[in-house]
Fold Corrinoid adenosyltransferase.
Amino acid sequence: MSEGSEVRDEAAHREKMARIKAAKDRLYASKTKEKGLLIVHTGTGKGKSTAAWGLAMRCLGHGLKLGVVQFVKGRREPGERKFLERFPELVTIKVMGEGFTWETQDRERDIAAARAAFEEAKRMMQAPELHMVILDELNIVLRYDYLPLDEVLEALATKRPDLHVVVTGRNAKPELIEAADLVTEMRLVKHPFREGVKGQLGVEF
Amino acid sequence: MSEGSEVRDEAAHREKMARIKAAKDRLYASKTKEKGLLIVHTGTGKGKSTAAWGLAMRCLGHGLKLGVVQFVKGRREPGERKFLERFPELVTIKVMGEGFTWETQDRERDIAAARAAFEEAKRMMQAPELHMVILDELNIVLRYDYLPLDEVLEALATKRPDLHVVVTGRNAKPELIEAADLVTEMRLVKHPFREGVKGQLGVEF
């Protein structure tokens, strides 16, 4: 490339970046409302709960308090829970007592466990000190009809207005998506399970 | 519902759950390989970096060490960085020195900053003590051609074999997706920006 074309190239780049910056500045300036958000992470891909733990980390970094209800207890001791339990002054965590469905094989017991967890979630959603409440895998519970959808929607609609609530799990109900402010679908593009690779420490759990 | 139909309902549920459990048990038993994964979070939705911080939390929960290179430094002090910096014995973190592109308006300086950050990333990808390396927003750097794609792919292909590497950012290059083990696309379903709500503490940063 000749020196002249490099100079033109640089100038074109600077001009383009200046346009982008101006557009971004205008965009951010127009966003002024604060609001407690209802955030939903759904889809069949990875990262739904994981992104909720990332939000938790963000809150903890700012010294903000959170509540966590895990509606599904897996087979393994997850790193995120071990970690969150180290901050009892900032994190209130409630784990639904038993495994889930295909583990417990007992619908009545699962419904009772879901109910107990949800009652705790409702308390958290009114607690004045919390910045965020994460309802991990609530979508699974709703999908199995272990909690009445109307009651859950009502509790979300009447949450403390400035509280952020994050709901995770595949197959989010359309009514929940309708009620939400921010919805992300995690879409599976490629998964190592297909090649016989197992779920690994620090990645899957 | 009569008592008889409730009993049949329960039996049908138990049978279904037993089938699911058996299928899950078979599936997990067939997955035996351990492998350092190349994980990519891309797409235009939220949660790409956030899910990487969730993976970081998972590692920290298990006491595993990580390396983090942030290729884009935003306007604000992000909670996740404030937080990760509290664990210097577990987390090595490198932030690309300047803002980025539309902030700096200086292509040459951005390229030099990307190069310095990438050299650090290459060192991390060989470090024997790390369980995971997060290359946050590397896709953006590749998209602007601030680093040669071939060199990046080569560094990823020759990483320590049992190391997990997470690459985030929209517009992941097809060659990177091809090379990856686990790829998730975060798809925007609904965003509160549309209603004039601004990026908020503990959610957006």
In short: The domain at 35-195 of chain A is CATH 3.40.50.300 (Rossmann fold). Strands of chain A lie at 38-42, 66-70, 91-95, 132-136, 164-168, 182-190. Chain A touches chain B through 82 residues (CB under 8 Å). The radius of gyration of chain A is 21 Å.
